[in-house]
Amino acid sequence: MLNQKIQKTTSDALALVADLTGKSREIADLIQQEQANLDIARKIYEMRTAAGLSQAALARKVGTTQSVISRLEDADYDGHSLAILRRIASAMDRRVEIRFPVIRKLSHA
Hints:
Layout: H1 13-21, H2 25-50, H3 55-62, H4 66-72, H5 82-91
């Protein structure tokens, strides 16, 4: 009883991912790619809903179809192009900004 290890629990997402994936660079890259897809989808959705637009209304402003907007708002979609993002931004009186932040390394906590 005295020599038992006490296992700490954590809610830190990076620590949990590191525990699940180990130190695989390939898995870490896939996770970052999926996070980027999620971020783009969320930003389009939030911008559209804040403007009070339906997917169909935004599609008309952009010159595309509702199904394209739906696909872009899907976190599992990975075919985003800079051209369509610029068209959406322009239709919403916005601009696209691209950043290259430093990658937070996955490490075991």
